[in-house]
Fold:
Amino acid sequence: MEPTLDAEAPSAQQVHVVLGGCSPGDAGKVLASLERWFSSEHGGTAPPGRDVVMQPTVWTAMVDTSHRADDVRPVPLAGSVVVNMQGGPVAVATLRDTLARAFALVDDGAASGDQEVDAQVRLRGR
Structure:
């Protein structure tokens, strides 16, 4: 039997991004920036303009790093944003480097598998 390619399998250029530990406004700024810099598909709608209190919330996006914009400028944030990235090593590195150009970035850790990297960073505005 021939192996089949799963049509839903992410490409080597895609990174699954999960944002959390932040206000909806800051999540919206990061997601809007990802849309400007890369092709992305949101897991939901843009966050509302109000703070969510006492309810953990996350926002997700699938980012295609094969079409990165060159015009990356600093993005102001009111607080910090925790970003979890999962994808191929080159794609995750491309996304991380782009985020580091726009935000003050702190690496919180990474785990590498056979063909995938899980990394967590914390962003603050510049």
